[in-house]
Amino acid sequence: CQYTGASGSGHRDLPTVSLCQSACEFAESCDWFTFVPTRDKACLLCSVPESLSLEGECSTDGVATGACVGGPETCPGSPDELIPAELLANSTAAAAGFCGRPPDGFDWSNPGTNNAGDLANADETELFEWSLALHAVVKEWHEGVHAGDLDLLAALAPAADACAAAILDDCGQAPCSYAAALVSNCRAFLLLYDGDAARAFSDDANRRHLFNNHSVFLADDGYFDPASIAAMDALYTDLPAHLMDNGVLGAGTAFCTVTCRDAFTCGADGALQYQLVVFTKTGYNLFQEQLGDRTENAFGGTTVGPAWSPTPDADGLMSLMRHETAHQFDRTMSSVAVALKNAIKSRCTEDENWLRAGVGNAFFQQNPVEIVASQLGNQWLSSTSTQLEVSRYRADAEGDLLPMEWLLLNAIIVGDETSTTFYERSSQGFTAAIPVG
What was the pLDDT predicted at 305? Predict the structure, then answer.
């Protein structure tokens, strides 16, 4: 059912033909879509070479082709695509209108396909299209694509006011209506436009503090509770500056986006809503769990001696948080540190050569990107002394110095020429940072 000659650019979990066509309209490099109702990911977005013709019948339902439906991103003869300034104005107005609090003096004279009266009753497809539009134009503006567009520049301030009004009304937590993605995009736009979280999180002191102190945008549709956010905040507070500035913040990105994909899920629309709330190049996803929901033993499967004094299991949410945060540390590593990591890895042949022996040699050899995240994130950032105990036992009892070499690599990544930082569990989900050197 795929269009002949097209190169697929991605499947999407979208439940209807109209949503699939809307996704194609705002997706980069998508010219043609196909919708196969019998497939789990029914929507396929395609890029079609210019040499191929897309002539044919077109309607709001696409072009029927046997068992599935397909069509171009926009129908022939339809009005020209709105310019970026109009997309920004109309999508932010839709957010304010849906949330029931349009800003005073906002110009409703050209609200796209809607009018002022029916924005508050926008259906799923309309809210989805506004979410797509807002995401597309803000992302391009952030990347400098429209730097010389005077109309867009003039539209920024009133659009920001509209987003601020939508947030004040607190209507975002409705993932089945796509309001979740739309309001989250409003928050991201305000963070980029204002440079702080005063308006983006005017309704939420905890997330406002997280952004203003650490430049971390928690895009979770309000899921995480205050205790969970406090533990996240403490983790960032205790990280050395170089790991935050060059790792978590990617050496220049406006902010890091931490998402909770599950919080945006409503049936089949979760994957796309989740994709629509990410604007920055650095970020990662967390599961839908709170502080205290589960625990993890990051040292499970590790061979130790009779003097073993196991550290209490780490909190599950924060263990994942440390793991995903440590993934960002790879970009901070010098060429010498990278060469050292590769050299140690090349000499590992069995599970016990690794500090995280319970994960094992085969996994790390096949997935080297997980080495720092797993051994530094899950272990070092949770209990450095336990990691030291493991490496010393392996050296003393088995003559295996590889775990000690991994420990020293962690110390190099976290520290500088004369010092490093150890971490020890202080309470559930929290650790104490201990400067060494």
Answer: 57
How many CB atoms within 10 Å of residue 123?
10
| Measured distance CA(374)–CA(133) in Å, rounded | 38
**What pLDDT, in 10s, does the model give residues 205-264?**
999 999 999 999 999 989 999 999 999 999 999 999 999 999 999 867 889 999 998 887
Rounded to two decimals, what is the model's pTM?
Answer: 0.82
Structure tokens that stand for 237 in this block: 């507070």
Tokens matching residue 365: 């050899």
Task: List C-alpha distances in Å: 3 to 45, 53, 250.
Answer: 10, 11, 39
**What CA–CA distance (Å, rounded) separates 248 from 241?**
10
pLDDT grade for 42, boundaries at 50, 70 and 90: confident
Give the position of tokens 């604007």.
279
pLDDT in tens, 372-389: 999 999 999 999 999 999
